[in-house]
Amino acid sequence: MSIEQAQQEIIDEFDLFDDWMDRYQYLIDLGKALPPLKEAEKTDDRLLAGCQSQVWLISEGEADRLVFRANSDAAIVSGLISLLLRVYSDRSAKEILASEPRFVEAIGLSEHLSPTRANGLSAMLSAVRNVARSVSPSDE
User: Fold this and answer.
1) What are the E-state strand segments in the chain?
2) pLDDT tens across 87-139, in order?
3) How far apart are CA 63 and CA 56, in angstroms?
4) What is the pLDDT of residues 3-40, one digit of tens each?
5) Contact (CB, 8 A) for 91 and 66
6) With contact defined as beta carbons under 8 Å apart, do 9 and 1 qualify?
7) Which residues participate in catalysis according to the annotation?
8) Is the Cα torsion angle 76, 83, 56, 96 positive or negative in sign?
């Protein structure tokens, strides 16, 4: 599945819900299903700045395939992480850098997240893109 297909799948899933209370609950459920990180992995160097809640991001791999694992101490933020991992984990750095997170606008996250959660989502997106940039060959 491509990044675009993953984004469309998320958009289609959120279209099934009539109101934002149901969408928030769905985000919470996605977050609960997120595999936990080990306590030893929750180190300060993996803690993202710019997030009100604690978010740990772990990246593994190289330019041809990056795998991300992450978790948060907040339920809705964990759900946002779940969406980001579906779109960006197990992709090449080139794919990540070539795509825009259109699902954020398409499902209404821009309008319905609190400013602090929106800042956190932006910080998570930036962190994923920064990892991709850091492993990309300089000629791309």
Assistant:
1) 55-62, 65-72
2) 999 999 999 999 999 999 999 998 898 888 888 899 999 999 999 999 998 65
3) 21
4) 999 999 999 999 999 899 999 999 999 999 999 999 99
5) yes
6) yes
7) 51
8) negative
CA distances from 90 to 3, 16, 43, 49, 62 (A): 10, 26, 23, 23, 10
One-letter identity of residue 26: Y
Q: List the chain domain ranges.
A: 3-135
Quote the pLDDT of residue 39: 95
Task: State the Cα–Cα distance between residues 135 and 60, nearest whole angstrom.
Answer: 11
Look at domain 3-135 and name its CATH class. alpha beta
Average pLDDT over residues 71-90: 95
Helix or strand run (H / E) with residue 82 = helix 75-88
